[in-house]
Amino acid sequence: MKNTHGGTRPGSGPKTKPINLARVAALRKQGLTQAEIVISMGSTRWVVAQAVKKINSESKQ
């Protein structure tokens, strides 16, 4: 029987792995693009973009 009452349960999707901000920062400092970091770390574009955003905001403080 097909599920017709809505979507999936909240939180039931794939879980993300924590990302190493220090490694992302070091790779950016070496001149790697976000796309190259995604490939080298085996992560997603969204996760790397959020990490870079966090690194940039911390460096401004």
Question: How is the topology of this model organized?
Answer:
Layout: H1 21-29, H2 34-41, H3 45-59
Helix pairs in contact: 1-3, 2-3
Short summary:
With 61 residues, the protein is mainly alpha-helical. The chain has helices spanning 21-29, 34-41, 45-59.
Verbal overview:
This protein is mainly alpha-helical and 61 residues long. The protein has a domain at 21-59. It is built from three helices and no strands. Helix 1 (21-29) crosses helix 3 and helix 2 crosses helix 3. The longest helix has 15 residues, at 45-59. The mean pLDDT is 86.
Class per helix and strand makeup: mainly alpha
Distance between the termini: 55 Å
Helix-strand sequence = HHH
Strand content: under 5%
The total count of strands amounts to 0
Largest sheet: none
For the CA atoms, what is the radius of gyration?
Answer: 16 Å
Features:
single chain, 61 residues, mainly alpha
